[in-house]
Amino acid sequence: MRLETAATRLLHIDVPVVQAGMSWASSSPDLPIAVSEAGGLGVLAAGPMRIPDLREAILTIQRSTDRPFAVNLPLYRKGIDEAMELLLDLRPPVLIASQGGPQCYLTQFHDVGTTCLHVVASEEHALKAAESGVDGLVVVGGEAGGHPPASLVSTLVLVRAVVRAVPEIPIIASGGFVDGAGLAAALSLGAAAAQFGTRFLASDESAVHPNYKQAVLAAGIGDTRTVGRGLGMIRALTNTFTDRITKLEDSATDIEQRRTEFHASTLKHAAVDGDIVNGKVEAGQTAGLITALLPAADIVTSIVQEYQDATSQLPRVQ
Asked: According to the model, what pLDDT value does residue 1 have?
């Protein structure tokens, strides 16, 4: 299967399907390998990984596939300098950086031949990143799980605004995409690929606890909530944790008390320990559209097939 766009040409992949870098879910080699082998871009999530584990994971991917893959690196992570040194040494084909500005890494990675994508959640940040010389942008809209933009502007609007603002570089649209119809929608907005997070979270190769996967399968489209405004807002499945934080926010509780409660629960509690009641079960609104766990390769294949079906049914101008 091949579906060529500006993003597939930039990243040297077969189809414009990017698997999101998701802490714990893709912080091990299996999911990135499966997606890359299927023709998309698999992404290793470096955020929660210890340096020795990160090194071994990258080496495992390099030994297991000759297809391009990416490493997602949150620039605020603990030990960022050591992590960047490691990546410069191992030279992953693609770096997807988030939570910071590109000036601190761009020249170094370009010098070793790594393609650099930067994650943005506003038109303003997209313009700044493009001006700095990044090779492409991942634009995250309000439907996304994990860390959507604080404005909660929808992907439909935000991606279109960024495409109009920086038409010269490839845009990867993220937030609200689960199938081939979503890919068609992303490309129709002017994006060159779509990023799929929650869909790959609910895959066989995803490394999160089975309880987490089942919670995603059981969710409806209205079963996520954004909590933690001013504290690093997240979108997560509704549970005891989100109910508690929402109550504190609604009652205008002091921010320091909210901070304590917000950070008492973690993504690791849900993703690793399986506590889907009190942990942060981060997921996008597309959780309500997912009905089955599938191998990652099958997900890539089905997205492309559904894209073909969706576009073939569009009415033609007479």
From this structure: 85
